[in-house]
Amino acid sequence: MIGIHKMFKTRQLKRGFFVSSMHIIIFLYLVYLLFPLLWMVSTSLKPTPEIYSGVPSLIPKVLTLDHYFTVLEEERLLQSIFNSFYVGCITSLIVVFISLPAAYALSRYKTAVNKAVMGWILTSQIFPAILIMIPLYMILRSLHLTDTLSGLILVYVVWDIPFVLWMLQGYVKDIPLELEEAAAIDGANQRQIIYKVIMPLLLPAIGASVMFAFITAWNEFFFALVLLKSPDITTLPVELARYTGIEGQARTGPLAAASFLATIPSILLFTVLRKWFSSGALQGAVKG
Asked: Fewest CB within 10 A of the end CB: N or C in the chain?
């Protein structure tokens, strides 16, 4: 009995050591991920002389909000924030609106055409953006959509749909077909099945799709730089490039402040959609 007790206690100690080690590793990994954000916030709160002093420090010796006041007083930056928010919201809504029914059709109706479509979706992700920039620009110019937010939204929608469609299609496949058959037996038509049975179970996937489409449009730089020329319709990433020295000396303090402000919408969006990321919705449906 004593030997069994010692062996059990040894196993408990090993398990506790393993769990503690995993916690330490996860904590260090989180610090690694958060350090650039912490350094950016620290830089945005430092006065300019301290930033260029050559002595690195995470905690500012003197706290100042001058850089935030500077960027918030610039009308072009505020307009670019609004432009990026508008483009991101419209893009995410259109992408989900198109991809959701398409993903359902690709998952539930097995045809040779569906397989070809899925192959095209995966193949389309191989080509880099710079490879299609010239023909894309010529198409938009013929449609009189260059230097417009509508043209940029169209590009983002076409660019995001393949990945979102592929992701949603995988989620729909995981939903048991028996749920739809049970709803049909109870008298539900196809529209009711989609909106009252499938849609609630796809909320985590829809939330992930909205986040992906919004953040992609919010952070995208290359298409916006090439397609937009008017200063009043530039998006935030293009506007932030002015602080890096394109128009003169780099403005590190205002750049850090503006970059931190640029991360806030993504954080707020994740906070709002966080309740959608739940793995228990499907389990509850199956048990019911």
From this structure: N
Nearest CA to 84 among 149, 130, 164, 157? 149
Q: Given a cut of 50, is residue 64 above it in pLDDT?
A: yes
Q: Classify residue 176 by its DSSP letter.
A: -
Q: Categorise residue 144: left if φ over 0, alpha if ψ from -120 to 50, beta otherwise.
A: left
Residue 153 tokens read as: 């939204």
CATH of the domain at 258: 1.10.3720.10
In a domain, 231, yes or no: yes
Complete DSSP assignment for 186-220: TT--HHHIIIIIIHHHTHHHHHHHHHHHHHHHHH-
* 66 lies in some domain: no
Phi-psi category of 54—alpha, beta or left, where left has phi over 0 and alpha has psi -120 to 50? left
Phi, psi (degrees; rounded to nearest 5) at 52: -100, 15
Q: What average pLDDT score do residues 161-172 get?
A: 86
pLDDT score at 283: 41
Two structure tokens written together for 6 = 């010692």
Instruction: Please give the Cα distance from 251 to 208 (Å, whole number).
Output: 35
**Model confidence over 124-163: pLDDT tens digits?**
777 777 888 888 889 998 988 888 999 999 999 988 888 8
